[in-house]
Structure formats: C-alpha cells, structure tokens
Design a protein that fits this description.
Helix 7 packs across helix 9, helix 12 runs parallel beside helix 13 and helix 12 crosses helix 17. This protein is 41% helix and 21% strand. Strand 17 and strand 18 form a beta hairpin. The strands form four sheets. It has a six-stranded mixed β-sheet with strand order 1-5-4-2-3-6, with helices on both faces. With 550 residues, it is an alpha/beta fold. Among the domains are: 149 residues, Alpha-D-Glucose-1,6-Bisphosphate, Chain A, domain 3, CATH 3.40.120.10; 86 residues, 3-Layer(aba) Sandwich (Alpha-D-Glucose-1,6-Bisphosphate, Chain A, domain 3); 110 residues, Alpha-D-phosphohexomutase, C-terminal domain (TATA-Binding Protein, 2-Layer Sandwich).
Length: 550
C-alpha cells in the first residue's frame, strides 16, 4: 500500500476548509493508512458529467480544494479556448445539499480571480434554471453544483458550455487536463489578473424560465388532481408555482418532503427510480384522490410519474412509458409541421421510433446522456426538437431545451393527463392504445451495484469481454446481431424482436442492464401481449445474469 502521509500533509497545507483539514489531521493522527490511501489513490475524474462523489478530505473526495482546483482548470480552459469568455462570463448555480453554497461561492471567487465575470445564484436553484440562464444571458459557460439524486453524503458539479449543453469530447479531456495542471502547479488564482465582478442571478431570469416552460405545452383541458413531491430537494416551490401558473388548481404536495433538506430523512436514496422512494407520494395520491403523482428528484432535472390503476392503486410508470406517452401526445396533439424530431438513447425503448414513423416525424437514437441526446437537433438546422428522453426518467421538451428538465416535463405530463381526462381516458388507456397499434413494448432494466475498490475497472473489463465474445443465445432465444454503439456499450438483438444493452453507469458504481421484448397484439388484447413479453424477458434476464456476474 503506497504511503499517503506526504501527499496528505501537502494537501493540508493547501486546503482552505477547517472542517476537512481537521478530518485529515484526525486520519493522520490515527495512522489510518488504508483510509489515507483511499483518499489519495488519485483524484475524482472530471468527465462528461462533471464531478460527482462523496464529500470529504483529499483529492478522491468532493471538497473545497477539489472544487477550487476544478474551477481554476475550467477558467484556464475558457481563457484559452473561448476568446470572449472574459466578456461573456459564467453562470454558477447550486442545489441545497451540504456545502453546495460554499462550493458555488468558491467557483465564483476562482473564476472571478481569473478575470471571468460570474453571475451567481444567491440561493438554491433547480438545475434546469441554472442551465436555462446560460443561453438566456449569453454566458460562455455554466456550472451547477449538485449531485442530483445521489445519497446525502455526495456532492458534485456539472459543466455546460455556452450552447447550454453538457460537455462532450474533446472538451471534457481538455478541461480535465487543465484541472490536472492546476493540481500540479498549485496556482488556483493567477497573479496580476484584476478580479472580475460577481453579480447575483437576476430574478428576471427565473421569470423568463417560468414563461418558457409554460409556453411549451397547452393549458389544462380539464381539471385534474395532482400529488407532488420534491424529494427533499429544490423543486418544491418552483413546481408548485409552475403548476399553479399553468392553471392546475388542485395540487397536493407531500408536506414531509416539500422543503429542501440535505439529509433526505425520509428516503434511503433520493432517487425516484429507487424502490420505495415514491412511497409517500403514492400515499398522498390516495389521500387526495389524485389522478397523477409527480416526483421531481433533488435538483429537479428528472421526474417520475405515478398514475392510478383501474382498481385505484398508484402505479409508477417507467421512463419509457412516459417517453412514449409524451412522444405520441406532442406529435399528435401539440406540434405540427415538417422536420419534427424525437430522440431517445440506445438503452431506451424502441417504441418512440414507431410513434415517430406513424406521425411522419424524424427519429434519432444516441448514446446515453443528454450530452448526446441534444446533439441531433443542434447539428441539423432543418430539424426541430419536439422531445428527447432517456429511460432514466429524463426528458427535454421543446426546441430550446438541451438538458433534461424535470420541472418542464412535470408540467407537460400534467397537461397531457388533463387532455386525456377531458377525453374520458387515463394515461394508462393512452398507453394501451399505443401498445395495440405498435405492439406491447415491455422493458426490464436492472443494475448490479459494486462499490469495491477497482469496481469501475472490473465493470469496464466485463463489458469488454462480452463485446469481444458475445453469447450465441440468451436462454432459448438466438442472438440475431451484436454491436457496440460505444467502447463500453454492448447491444444484443435477439430473434423475435427482443434486445439487451449492457453498460457501466457513468455516474454511479453500477453495471446497468436494459432488456426489452416486443409482442404484437393482433386481437387487441394488450394484457395478454404484455404477459407474453414479460415471460420472454424473464427467460432473457435469467440467462443474462450469470454472464454479468462473471
């Protein structure tokens, strides 16, 4: 085990935070070599999703020194590669997690110290507001301090360029190299550079965001009752205001989860996709007799949707269900004209492509992550983005949205549910209609979590082995084709119309597996078609699991 004592003492000399200095001094005093080695085994990698990880002392944790070094690297990149960055400036926003405000203030101070003006959100804001501000104000870049839906011990920061999109190669590599250079030379703030101003985010920007959201979808067609939860994040008040301004009068929040609380006391993981995370929302739906439940995650860039089954029980729709419903509604009832574009990721359901074909719209498929999903519309001037979505409950609605926006999507789902209600139908009825027309598309996605040392390398190696030597069968189904949309993504298409995608998560210590089966419903019996698809998926999953546990 390498001796981390010297790097730890060097870190202590540069760490501006008394809290993490005391933490590191305690580890040194205790002679905790294993923990010190873990803290100094490298540094948090800055990639296309920015930084994210547990808070604590040392370069492998999120802390003020890591944030300041990262901000300095971003500043160096901007000054070298974006000539007007010192005129246009940078937006910095943050969520309500522990130390997020301090991290945002550090970012602002360091950027200003490089002569780059900063517009700083003075209080917590949803990620979509921070992202919107970039293009609205015309800044050169934007930083949002957040760990999104990670556990309370984590924090992070996301970087966007002036186009309002998350960074992609080669920008991520250049920024990472600049951050490494700062860590090596220790120059967080350059000498002799007059500091630029730091000004507060104008309230007018939030008003403009709200107006943009409300302008993307029609007003309610019929009154419905809506239950909501903010999952202890920053989306509670903004979502309540948006729904009220949109015309929804009967909105019932989960009171225990409405106010920001960085400890997330009522949920183990503040992720609406996690089993049990939306339990209080389901209970609130029953209590309020709500038609729909909407759960935005802690930074409000994603939304989960619950509906009532025919026996009245709340049921959470999958991200693919919501993506298909939104695609159909937006193409059939909200938008018109040529060049309409809908986009989903390679791990999402194939149903959206069939919906696009039925409406004469353009369909595109990209790698996972909104850093890719927004690109087709950005790269083709003749196309107008109607919807981009990924199965992990992320949605971008409208031509001007280049990252997932849970608040905007929540308002859209409320309007869509209202339109169905006005026609005497529910969202489940609408989903049945889609499956009758295009086949029952059923998905079964699962993850294998591994937080052990070297876990990321093991996941990457496993996917590499499967790409190099894919199976010929999964259960009774023969493999029809295999491709690798990216170096760490394996897609297997099976005879009969099923498909499997395996990839490591880019933000969590997980290997993710995505399975889909499609069964026609020629007699209109979608329930029987779904049961046939589920049986096929069960056999596929049983055959796949031993391969990914290898």
């Amino acid at each position: 085990m390498p001796d981390a004592t010297a790097p730890a003492r060097d870190w202590l000399a540069r760490d501006p935070d008394p809290r993490t200095r005391a933490e590191l001094e305690a580890l040194l005093a205790a002679g905790d070599d294993a923990e010190l080695a873990a803290r100094f085994a490298g540094r948090l990698a800055f990639g296309t999703a920015g930084l994210r990880g547990p808070m604590g002392a040392g370069p492998m944790r999120m802390n003020r020194l890591v944030v300041r070094q990262s901000a300095a690297g971003i500043a160096r990149y901007l000054r070298e590669h974006v000539p007007d960055a010192t005129a246009r400036g940078v937006v910095v926003a943050h969520d309500a997690r522990h130390h997020s405000a301090a991290f945002a203030a550090d970012c602002a101070e360091v950027l200003a110290g490089h002569g780059i003006p900063v517009v700083l959100a003075e209080g917590p804001q949803p990620t979509p507001v921070g992202v919107f501000a970039i293009r609205h104000l015309g800044t050169a870049a934007g930083i949002v301090v957040t760990a999104s839906h990670n556990p309370s011990a984590d924090n992070g920061m996301k970087l966007y360029m002036g186009d309002g999109a998350q960074i992609v190669p080669p920008v991520d590599g250049l920024v990472a190299a600049a951050i490494d250079a700062v860590a090596a030379d220790g120059a967080v703030t350059p000498p002799g550079v007059p500091p630029a101003p730091v000004t507060p985010l104008p309230a007018a920007v939030v008003d403009a965001y709200r107006a943009a959201v409300l302008g993307r979808v029609p007003a309610p067609a019929s009154p419905i009752r809506i239950a909501t939860t903010a999952m202890h994040g920053v989306g509670g008040a903004p979502l309540a205001r948006l729904l009220a301004d949109a015309g929804h009068r009967e909105v019932f929040p989960v009171a225990a989860q409405e106010a920001p609380d960085p400890d997330f006391p009522t949920v183990t993981f503040p992720n609406p996709e996690e089993p049990g995370a939306t339990g209080l929302l389901a209970a609130r739906m029953l209590e309020a007799d709500a038609h729909v439940g909407l759960a935005v995650d802690p930074d409000a860039d994603r939304v989960a949707v619950l509906v009532r089954t025919r026996d009245g029980e709340p049921r959470q729709l999958t991200g693919d269900d919501v993506g298909a419903l939104l695609g159909e509604w937006l193409l059939a009832e909200v938008t018109s004209g040529p060049g309409r574009l809908v986009v989903c990721s390679v791990v999402s359901s194939s149903l959206l492509s069939r919906i696009a074909d039925a409406h004469g719209a353009v369909f595109a498929e990209t790698l996972t992550g909104f850093k890719w999903l927004c690109r087709p519309a950005m790269e083709e001037a003749g196309l107008t983005q109607v919807l981009a979505y990924e199965e992990a409950i992320g949605y971008a609605i409208g031509p001007d949205v280049r990252d997932k926006d849970g608040l905007s999507a929540a308002v859209a789902v409320a309007s869509m549910a209202s339109a169905a209600h006005a026609a005497g139908a529910t969202l489940l009825d609408r989903l049945d209609d889609l499956h009758r027309r295009h086949g029952a598309h059923v998905t079964d996605n699962f993850s294998l979590r591994d937080e052990s040392p070297g876990g990321a390398a093991k996941r990457a190696a496993l996917v590499g082995r499967l790409i190099a030597a894919p199976p010929s069968h999964l259960g009774d189904a023969a493999v029809a084709s295999v491709d690798a949309p990216a170096a760490d993504v394996l897609r297997i298409r099976l005879e009969g119309g099923s498909r499997v995608v395996v990839r490591p998560s880019g933000t969590e210590p997980k290997l993710k597996c995505y399975c889909e089966a499609v069964e026609p419903a020629p007699d209109g019996d979608v329930h029987a078609a779904r049961e046939r698809a589920r049986a096929r998926l069960a056999a596929i999953r049983a055959a796949l699991t031993p391969l990914v546990l290898d």
